[in-house]
Amino acid sequence: MATTIDWFGGDGSNEIVPAESGEFDTLGFFGAAFGFSIRVGEFNQTCRVTNDDGSTDLAQIPNLKFFNASGAFVAGELLARELLQIDNDEATLRVRMFTDSSVSTQNSAFRAFDRVDINNGPSGVLVKAAEIIKIPSQGVGSGNTFWTDIAGTGDLDLVDQVAASSVHSWFVGLTASPQSIGEKTDLGFYFETEFL
Prior knowledge:
Elements: E1 3-9, E2 15-16, E3 26-30, E4 46-50, E5 57-61, E6 64-68, E7 71-74, E8 81-82, E9 93-113, E10 125-131, E11 148-149, E12 156-158, E13 161-178, E14 188-195
Antiparallel strand pairs: 1-2, 1-9, 3-4, 4-5, 6-7, 7-8, 9-12, 9-13, 9-14, 10-11, 10-13
């Protein structure tokens, strides 16, 4: 069975291409704008699609900035929202899977790692994640109520998608905070799922 997995900004407008492409294959977390640092202990104000070392900007993708255990600032808004009030297209990432026949999914998970071993946490950066499940017409979504710290074997478990389809999408909100000074490039993301 042929299967492909693509990564986009949550709004679906900008693809993050596979790592082996050597192109714009990196999700970059920045301060107030592209190239601006995030202060130690603070969280990202912008998210960009960029290259491996973060030196070239391709496009902005939706940004979530940690506010508290259950809330975030969405795309620079002045008032924070609860995670359950954030729409799918406001999530940081959309992971989309295509199959050549209809399948259901189970045991899906998302994690952050050091780009060497998926069981190692990222180096020098705290990453929090939440699954976003809410369409704009809903008052309250059904995704995660609280942020989860993800690192190495600390997965964000994603909801099973039991309705059979040839296309499945997961929306993941991400926020990052450096724990020491300096550029943080030992950070990658890993997604896995079972389908039948």
